[in-house]
Write a structure and sequence with these properties.
The structure holds two protein chains of two kinds. Helix content of chain A is 64%, strand content 9%. In chain A, strands 2-1-3-4 form a four-stranded mixed sheet, with helices on both faces. Chain B is built from 15 helices and five strands. The chains are: A alpha/beta, B alpha/beta. Chains A and B meet through helix 2, helix 4, strand 4, helix 6 and helix 7 of A and helix 2, strand 4, helix 6, helix 7 and strand 5 of B. Strand 4 of chain A pairs parallel with strand 5 of chain B.
Chain lengths: 376, 380
Amino acid sequence: MRNFIQKEMGRIKNDRVYLALIFFAPILSLVLLASIYTNEIIRDIPVAVVDLDNSVLSRKVAFYIDSSPSMMITKRCKSVEEVEMLIKGGDVQAGFIFPHDMEKDVKTNKLTSVTVLKNTINIVTSNVLLKDASTIIKTVSGGITVKKILAAGNGQDKAIAMANPVEVHSSPLFNSNYSYEQFLVPGLFLFFIQISLMLAGVMAFNRNRFEKINSFAELLYKSGLHLALGMVFQIVSLLVILPAFSIPLTGNYFQLFFMFGLFSIASFLPGAAISLFIDDLQTAAEYVMFFNTPAFIFSGLTFPLWSMPALHRIFAEIIPLTHFMEAFIRFGFMDLTPDYYSIQTLKLFGFVLIPAIVIAYKLSRDNKSTGVQENV
Amino acid sequence: MYNGIKFEFTRELRNIFSDKSLILMLLAAPLFYAFFYGSAYLNKVERELELVIVDYDQSATSRMYSRMLDASGIIKVTGNEPQIDVAMNSFYQAENKAVIYIPKGFEKELKKGKGSDVKIYLNNTRFLPSNDIVKAVSEISATVGAGIRLKYLRAQGLSSGQAIEVVEPLRIDMRSLHNTTESYGDFLIPGIFILILQQTLLIGLGESIAKDREKGLIGTKQQWWKSGKALPYLIMFTSYAFLFFTVAFDVFGIPQIGNYLLLMVTTVIFLIAVVLFTYFISSFFKTKFEALILLAFTSYPVFLISGYSWPSMSMPLWVKYLGYIIPSTPFLEAYIKITQFGAGFDLILPQMIHLIALAFVFALLNKLRYYKFDKTGLKV
């Protein structure tokens, strides 16, 4: 066993592609991705204002817009066309148009509205604009309603209640400040684990690179060694990279170790199995890549699986990441007990068992055909 | 020179069609990915997001409120639980994406004119459903609130017409320019097409360059910039781009209101920049396998750093500048302006200059890099 491991380690030490695959490429990619989202939420989206009213009310609304953390007035325009050109040019993401006589209309009980033109190409910024612009206008409108109801001789409590009779309090659980860093980076981290370990499985078991495996014990040593090395990236990420970017994870060490270990084996073994059937390393790696590249999209983190067509949902089912993502959300974010992700855990066991049986069968058949008398 | 280009062109065509992995990466991958990824977002928007209501009031108003939520199209009320802990359990099982809590006395308080609260517990581990639920619940609550205000104002002696005018003194008229349905599919699919073009070209050509290096074919007497090697790739990927902008846009219902000539000219400049970028990056790979493995890790970072999904203004400066080195960053901006805004040359000039500058810089770097190969015999 010692000789076997020493020989394998010697190979790994001199294999710069393998080392890049299991350490450097995923670590660098994760650090870069986490850096993209260090600001966590979107602030100071450039917006324009067309103030055709030039009244106390319009200036007050403009002040609220500029004071909001998400928006910043960068242009004051004279016409709607000018705003449209600025949006087209990418200089601003939205334009607020205050109509002529807006204040006068409010005072004389005539219908009036603030028009907001927004660039909806980017749904992320557009959602922020929608939420904050609506809040500002509704707050101003509510204030006017309160004044009017007070003026009609009602008490303050009644006036406030009438301004907003059904008040919605939203309590977002598990990522309460809507941080994109906390939302996306852990998901991409899981994606990198899967792709690097599946490719590591291909490289470790490719027959053109290394000699055949002759016993079940060798199979276990080899898998164990590569998995242990593959898990270094996970340990570095969980203990250093994610905490350095203030990405919190819940769950105890045992839970984390067990689930990440299971996911690692479920990612590694399919790669190893593919490699045993395709002798050419390049071709085997390409198949694995072809299968892995869409894995993050089909994990359902950014766009829910239930909204995808049936064919895509079936494809998602045959990717270990889909199931681990669901389990990870429950233990890593929601801090739930194992019975809440038992189905996902069982499915991951399937990703371990099926390739393990295939590998054992293939090795025993190959060894029989070459006349090797070992207990595979 | 012409004969040299012709020779390299035909040699590369033979190389592509005789290599299984290049066929997979250059012929199958762009088309398969474009249609497979694109069709994942066919539904474009979410519908019937499941949530459970805990109605402690059990009044006519609270039931009407629940029915209005269910009728919104976005939300599907899966149950009306009498106990909050039962509802929260189904929420933790992730069967329901939210729990709406209607307090006891909801109707009574509203009738008294005191106002009442509704609470939403959201599973915020996924943003898209949680944003859509908040949006729908807020809209319905505002509608119910406006109805209550209207009744109150009429009770104060105002006519229906007057009451409607006073009910919401200042309104918001939100107009979405481009992607008017505000769908996730219309937002993401155009960007994914460009990512597919760039990444399959990067990996395919990168593998081919590394293969040449394995065979000792580059860096000796070849002057790479006069070589016809890149031509088949440019022709192939220009054709893919055209196919995406016409057929795929049409299939997935993505609007294209821009000028096709301007779009294709910009695309060709982008592809030239990608080819030159690939030549430079691939000069560091010694084998085809190395190129495949390491370039595979670039797809998601390259897309996310481009500013397409997360705005570059919210990125740290060094990340933003790193993004400027990659051709897809300026191209995505120009491409969206042309296809979605119908922008002309004047509006995309900065991105055009950026792309041309990138092409020049990589051409210069390649000259230096491949000159070194000549001097040292591939030992760089």
